[in-house]
Request: fold
Amino acid sequence: MEYLKAFLVGGLICVICQILIDKTALTPARILTGCVVLGVGLGATGLYAALVDWAGAGATVPLTGFGNLLAEGTQEAVARDGLLGALTGPLSAASGGIGAAILFGLLSAICFRPKEK
Reply:
């Protein structure tokens, strides 16, 4: 049942973003940024935590989950370190994902050469 809930929630998030791409004049970059900002807003208000508890990876894997991770990291670091935590918290919380993205981007750039059109 957990897999079904994760599939439905993650799929619904992706369907909403795909509809926005197909039916609006918004660029994919703006839609992706909007997903992160939405995740930060829902995470900061505590609403996203209930979705994560219910859907698991279906809520944490999409970009809204990344925004939620940034919000949670900020809240924890501010509670621990004060105002300085607002700067260090999001980077500490998301450092694993950011590091992996940089590493795999570098490996892709080394392995594949772009072709001219």
Summary: The mean pLDDT is 92. The longest helix spans residues 2-23.
